[in-house]
Design brief:
By secondary structure, the protein is an alpha/beta fold. It is built from 6 helices and 13 strands.
Length: about 250
């Protein structure tokens, strides 16, 4: 652990204390908070990554999606509009700009108007009409694609500081292609047949496949091909007022 000390640089004496040129007077000297390296394992925080808190896991610990990152991230959510809107709203709260590509702009318009506290951080676009977003480390972007079970190829792709979330209400003919190319997959309640397809594609154990057809409306399995986690998303009062209660089918 690197200890923080006095900045280097030219120092001069002043009446009443020592001053650093360009930095002003030195503050009072107190004991530093130092932790031996052997004790680092005892220090823990419940969030394992920076990002969007989407709910809690089975141990009631915060579950986080790292959407704002320097590498491209393709997310597929097999689920409902409510879950996709919660993710978008919480991503906007972290400072991300949200671009929604949708064939049903009327269901996204209230969220776009309410998010951002007066600033336009959520924009709604017709399918195939999302303009370049210019993502950066200081202005990350989440593109939400809500274009039915057979979304066309998007004009705006995942890029550094620009993640893409594709919403599939249920599995259609092109769904396996989306699942195979995704970095991360979220699955809400699906039929047993759909669960089998997802299980084969994502290499899920039989117990998880069986659980997918009985999930509650505010539950989802978030998984890669090596990690998986069931998450319960509990909406805030503000989210419930804007989006309504949790629901799987719109």
């Amino acid at each position: 652990m690197t200890e923080v000390g006095t900045p280097s640089g030219v120092e001069r004496e002043t009446r009443g204390g020592r001053a650093r040129l360009g930095f002003g007077l030195l503050g009072p000297r107190r004991s530093r908070h130092v932790l031996p390296a052997g004790q680092l394992a005892a220090v823990g925080v419940p969030v394992g990554d920076d990002g969007v808190v989407i709910g809690v896991d089975a141990q009631n610990r915060p579950a986080v999606l790292g959407l704002n990152r320097p590498t491209p991230l393709e997310v597929v959510l097999v689920g409902g509009l409510w879950m996709a809107q919660v993710v978008a709203l919480r991503a906007a709260a972290t400072g991300a700009r949200i671009a929604v590509e949708t064939g049903r702009p009327q269901v996204w318009a209230p969220l776009a108007q309410a998010a951002g506290g007066g600033q336009q951080c959520v924009t709604v676009h017709e399918v195939g009409r999302v303009p370049p977003q210019g993502p950066s480390v200081g202005s990350p972007v989440l593109v939400v694609r809500d274009a039915g079970i057979r979304p066309p190829r998007g004009r705006v792709a995942a890029a550094p500081w620009q993640s893409v979330l594709t919403l599939l209400p249920y599995l259609g003919p092109t769904a396996p292609r989306f699942l195979e190319s995704a970095t991360l997959v979220g699955v809400q309640r699906v039929s047993p047949d759909e669960a089998e397809v997802i299980g084969r594609t994502m290499a899920l154990p039989a117990a998880d496949v069986g659980a997918l057809s009985g999930l509650g409306d505010n539950f989802a399995l978030w998984c890669t091909r090596t990690h998986r986690q069931f998450v319960m998303t509990q909406p805030t009062d503000a989210e419930t007022g804007l989006l309504g209660t949790a629901r799987r089918v719109d």
